[in-house]
Write a structure and sequence with these properties.
Helix content is 37%, strand content 27%. It is of the alpha/beta class. The strands form three sheets. Strands 3-2-1-4-5-6-15 form a seven-stranded parallel β-sheet, sandwiched between helices. Strands 10-11-12-7-13-14-16 form a seven-stranded mixed β-sheet. α1 links the parallel β1 and β2. α4 packs parallel to α5, α7 runs parallel beside α9 and α7 crosses α11. The longest helix is centred in the last third of the chain and has 17 residues. Bound molecules: NADP nicotinamide-adenine-dinucleotide phosphate.
Length: 354
């Protein structure tokens, strides 16, 4: 099956456009000269947002209203799903993308939602579209960094990923998604997907300043599912420092507040990936500001590359699988994050987990 040809200038439908992340994505599409179509279930919120963007079309469509979704998608080239919990929205919106034969992207962090998209690869190929889940801070960023670090290695002993945040002011969507997602989480050990141990192990991680050494806990999200699609490693583990998890657990932690001209909060992130093989370590790291805001350039960059014809074959893909990861990341740095890639194969003292 060949890739279904869509008009490169056709509109891009953003479902969940009124959400915190959806708004960043709409702004990024407009910044890149694209025509977004605002879509979601809440007529009041959509109306308010449409007034902020005169001339931008909006469609009200509940997630289970196939006819309304089809009307919204008519004539578009791609659907970006920014509405989570994705355990509720991925299936109906991927169905809509398949019916209308347009490319599908989402920002899911849930492993089950990403696995759902990959599990429908045959249908996606049959429809001649590209479907790419988890093109976001959690998911594609670690996948791209790990892929860039692997470079020409065709396997690794371990891929260790650590997220360091100076705090986390979660959105309503983040809180609801966490409550909704009670599924077993997966890690990779001995080359196989295994359930996350309970209690999850902790270890210290040396982040660059100002975070420095932090206590982290093994906590995996959709990056594991993405990485396992195409990279071979005996171990894939992801850690997060404890401070942001305390913020998340505290019901009184406020929502994020814009503190720069791009609407980003003051939150700082480090995404630190170490790939090891035969005693050698390679490092790939992104450091920047606001995990919600950085999701917009990631997903729009992927969309632009698909519309530009960089992906020749239809299918459910991860970003690292189909793009030149170092170039993709390089295209976003330093505007959206600082990027460090250390390819010198130096023998590492830190070859095993604490
Ligand atoms: N992987 C990552 O790094 C990453 C990054 C950013 C966001 N996310 C995920 O993206 C999702 C949205 O986050 P957010 O921060 O933008 O949250 P938010 O500000 O609360 O926005 C959530 C949006 O999703 C819509 N929505 C939720 N459930 C829906 C349903 N069943 N049917 C229709 N619309 C629905 C909401 O519509 P209403 O306003 O009508 O409720 C709203 O527009 C969350 O799942 C979050 O985990 C992931």
């Amino acid at each position: 099956m060949h890739l279904h040809q869509t008009s490169p200038d056709a509109p891009i439908v953003v479902y969940g456009a009124t959400g915190h992340t959806g708004r960043f994505i709409v702004a990024e599409l407009l910044r890149r000269g694209r025509t977004p179509v605002l879509c979601g279930r809440d007529v009041v919120r959509l109306g308010e947002m449409a007034r902020e963007h005169p001339g931008v079309v909006c469609h009200v469509a509940a997630i289970d209203d196939a006819a309304a979704l089809d009307a919204a998608l008519h004539g578009a080239s791609a659907l970006i799903n920014a509405a989570g919990p994705f355990l509720d929205t991925t299936e109906p919106l991927l169905d809509a993308a398949l019916r209308n034969r347009l490319h599908y992207f989402d920002t899911s962090a849930e492993q089950g939602a990403a696995a759902h998209v990959f599990g429908r690869d045959a249908q996606v190929r049959e429809a001649g579209i590209v479907a790419m889940p988890s093109v976001a801070f959690y998911g594609a960023l670690a996948d791209l960094l790990a892929t860039a670090a692997m470079d020409e290695w065709d396997d690794a002993d371990s891929i260790d990923i650590a997220v360091g945040l100076d705090g986390w002011h979660p959105t309503r969507g983040t809180r609801i998604t966490g409550e909704r997602n009670r599924a077993v989480r997966w890690i990779v050990d001995d080359g196989e997907l295994r359930p996350l141990p309970d209690p999850a192990p902790t270890r210290e991680w040396n982040f660059p300043p100002p975070l420095g050494t932090q206590e982290t806990v093994l906590l995996t999200l959709s990056e594991i599912v993405s990485i396992m699609r195409h990279l071979r490693s005996r171990r894939v583990h992801s850690y997060m420092n404890l401070a942001p998890l305390r913020d998340l657990r505290d019901p009184s932690t406020p929502s994020p507040v814009a503190s720069d001209e791009r609407g980003r909060s003051s939150q700082r992130f480090v995404l630190d990936v170490r790939v090891r093989r035969d005693g050698y370590t390679r490092l790939a790291m992104a450091q920047g500001r606001d995990i919600y805001a950085v999701t917009a350039p990631l997903i729009v960059e992927a969309l632009e590359r698909v519309l530009a014809g960089e992906v020749q074959e239809p299918g459910a893909w991860t970003a690292g699988e189909v793009f030149d990861a170092a170039r993709f990341l390089g295209a976003l740095a330093p505007e959206h994050f600082d990027l460090t890639l250390e390819y010198e194969d130096e023998e590492s003292e830190e070859t095993s987990e604490a």
